[in-house]
Amino acid sequence: MSRWLLRYPTITALLITLLWGNAFVGIKYALETLTPVQFLLARFIPAAVWLGLMAARDWPTWGRVLRDHWRPLAFLGVIFIWGYHLLLNMGETTILPGLAALIVATSPVFVFLFGLLLREETPTAEKLIGLALAMAGLYLSVVFSDQAIGLSKAGVAQRAYNLGILATFGTCLSWAVYTRGVKSLARQADPFVLTGWVMILGTLPSLFLIDRPFVSALAGASVQFWLALAYLSLIAAVWAVLWWSKLLQHADATTLSAFIYLVPVWSHLFSFLYYGERFTPLSGLGMGLILGGLWVLNAKRPPPPQLAGSKGPPICGTALAWMEQLERERAEAEARAVKDSGA
C-alpha cells in the first residue's frame, strides 16, 4: 500500500485533504460528548503514544532532534496543542465546521502579517492584493454565513457565535506563531520528526489534567464517539501528517500546496451532509474570494535577475539585501584570509 500511495501522489493528496476536511466535522461531533479540554486530552494522548513508539523505533534520528532542539520544540508544542487545537475546539463548540475550516484556511494570511511585523516578508503589490481579497472574503463568510443569518432571523443573541469566531481567529494566530517558529528548524531536521516531537511535548502537560470527570465521560461515550476519536487521533492527526510529509519528499511541493485549498471545500460538504450547513450567496462569494486571495498570496513568482558573479537569488527579492549579503561574504573572506596568514 505504501508504494501505491507514493506512486499516485494526486490521489493520495486528495485522500489526505478529504481526511482533514472531514476532521472539522468530527471535532464538532466529539465536542457533543466532551468539553474542549477533555477532547484535547482524548485526541492527543493516543497520538502522542503512537508517535512515541515511532520515536523509539528510530531513536538515533528522533533522539538527535530532541537533544538539539528540545527548548524550541517544547515552546512550539504549547503553541500547537494548547493554542491552535484548544482554541479550535473552543471555536467549534459554537460555530459550524464549514465556517471553522474556512477561517482556519486563512492562516497563511496571518503568517504573512506576522512576517511583516518581523520584517521577514516583503509587501509586494501581488501579496497585498491577495491579502485584501482574503480579508474581504473572510468578512463576507463570517457576517453572512448561514448560521449568522439563521441566528439573526430567530432573534437570538450572537454572543456565543462571536466568541466562537474569535476563538477560531486565535487558532490562526497560533498557527502563524507556530509556522514562523518551526520554519527556522525545518532545514535542520525531518519535518515529520519535528511535528512528532511538537505533539509529544505539547501533550505531556495534559497528563496532569486527567481526572475522574474525564474518565467518566469517556466511559459513558458511545461506540460512534470512539470511532470518531480513533479517526481524529490516529488517522487525521498522525497518519495523514506522516503521509503528507512523505509526499513532500517525492512530489512537487507547489503542486501539493494547491490541494490544501480543498480542505474547506470538503469541510463544507461534510458539514452540509451532517449538520445542514449551507452557503448563502454572499458567504459563497466570500469563500471564493478567500481561496482566490490565498492563491495570489502564495503564488510562486520567478526570481529577480541575479547580479553578475552572484551565487543565488537576492534575499527578500531586493538588490539592497543582496548587496548586503555580498558585503558580508567579502568580509568573511577577508577574515579567513587574515586568520590563515596569521597561522
Sequence-ordered SSE layout with sheet pairings:
Layout: H1 2-7, H2 9-30, H3 36-57, H4 59-92, H5 97-105, H6 107-117, H7 125-143, H8 146-154, H9 159-186, H10 191-203, H11 212-219, H12 223-250, H13 253-259, H14 262-275, H15 281-298, H16 319-342
Helix pairs in contact: 2-5, 2-12, 2-14, 3-4, 3-10, 3-12, 4-9, 4-10, 5-9, 5-14, 6-9, 7-15, 10-12
Number of strands: 0
Distance between the termini: 59 Å
The coarse overall form would be globular
- Strand proportion, as a percent range, falls in under 5%
Structure description:
Helices cover 79% and strands 0% of the residues. The protein is mainly α and 343 residues long. It folds into 2 domains: 300 residues, no CATH class; 40 residues, no CATH class. The radius of gyration is 23 Å and the shape is globular. The N and C termini lie far apart (59 Å). About 7% of the residues have low confidence.
Explain briefly what this protein structure is.
By secondary structure, the chain is mostly helical. It has 16 helices and no strands. Mean pLDDT is 82; it is low at 303-327.
